[in-house]
Design goal:
158 residues; alpha+beta; Immunoglobulin-like; 2 domains
């Protein structure tokens, strides 16, 4: 009986250590589960790769590969950015009130995190894919967009 108690104790300790060892792996997998949209700013405009889905934590990685300072602004940023990392500078409106844009100098990168909730049409109850416009507040000819894809329903299985 004493051998079984020792073996049982060793097994429980091994399971506990194994669980602790696996914890960082599950945290890493959760971080990888976020959606990502990559926006590269050149002096000619924006290049966009990626999309996101409603409700998903999304990282917008913005890189300025141009030769001058560029900005990025969007209605989505006013209400939805939960965190900013990197070099970008938040620009506020007159008297420091209200969001206006983020500015990036040449060679700088920043990441903006947001989550856009699903919104259905009040008349039909249907949720649709939406386009998120953005633009450079410094160079008004520069515009872009990315998609927030609605995946609920028969096709998306939501």
């Amino acid at each position: 009986m004493k051998v079984n108690a020792v073996a049982l104790k060793a097994c429980v300790i091994a399971l506990g250590v194994g669980t602790i060892a696996l914890m960082p792996v599950s945290v890493t997998r959760a971080a990888e589960a976020e959606m990502k949209v990559e926006v590269t700013i050149t002096d000619q405009g924006y290049n966009v790769k990626g999309h996101t889905t409603t409700g998903a934590l999304t990282a917008i990685v913005v890189r300025n590969t141009g030769s001058m300072t560029h900005g990025i602004s969007s209605p989505l940023f006013k209400a939805g950015v939960t965190k900013k990392e990197g070099d970008g500078v938040e620009i506020r409106g007159p008297k420091g009130k209200g969001f206006r844009a983020y500015h990036l100098d040449p060679g700088q990168t920043m990441t903006l995190y947001f989550s856009k909730p699903s919104a259905s049409d009040p008349a039909t109850g249907i949720s649709e894919t939406s386009q998120v416009p953005f633009w450079c507040d410094i160079h008004t000819h520069m515009k872009g967009e990315f998609l927030v894809v609605e995946t609920k329903g028969e096709i998306g299985g939501g």
